[in-house]
Amino acid sequence: MEYEIGPEESVSTAVVRAVSAVEGRELCSLRPLADVVDPTALDSLFDPRDDGTPRTGGRLSFVYNDCCITVDNGEYLTLQLLEGRFCDERDQEPSDSCVR
């Protein structure tokens, strides 16, 4: 599933909403994102710089609630349910954080 992060939506909020949608579960029934990654740090990675200029590029992948989440440029999320596959099928080598 691909999810476009809204202009006023934080990356951490987008992750939880997207996983909730993919799994068909209520937000409050999901494991806290903070158990996996610091939500403030996640948001900071993709927030604009101190002078207001946007950060460009960047990709981060991690596992949350049996989904492999890939954040691209703070604008898009790609979610894959884990079924023994790698987070990013484009990777040539497996990533320890994304292999189940």
Write the layout of secondary structure elements.
Layout: E1 2-4, H1 11-23, H2 39-46, E2 59-64, E3 67-72, E4 76-81
Antiparallel strand pairs: 1-4, 2-3, 3-4
Describe this protein with a few key phrases.
2 helices, 100 residues, alpha+beta, disordered C terminus, single chain
How would you briefly describe this protein structure?
With 100 residues, the protein is of the alpha+beta class. 21% of the residues lie in helices and 21% in strands.
Structure description:
The protein is an alpha+beta fold. The chain has one domain. 21% of the residues lie in helices and 21% in strands. It has helices at 11-23, 39-46, and strands spanning 2-4, 59-64, 67-72, 76-81. Strands 1-4-3-2 form a 4-stranded antiparallel β-sheet. It is globular and about 40 Å long. It starts with a strand and ends in a 19-residue tail after the last strand. Mean pLDDT is 84; it is low at 89-100.
Secondary-structure-based class equals alpha+beta
Strand order of the largest sheet: 1-4-3-2
* N-to-C series of helices and strands: EHHEEE
Mean pLDDT: 84
Helix amount: 10-25%
Percent strand equals: 15-25%
Number of discrete domains: 1
Low-confidence spans: pLDDT under 50, at least 5 residues? 89-100
Largest sheet: 4 strands, antiparallel
* Overall geometric form: globular
Distance between the termini: 19 Å
Domain Halobacterial output: 8-75
Protein name: HalOD1 output domain-containing protein
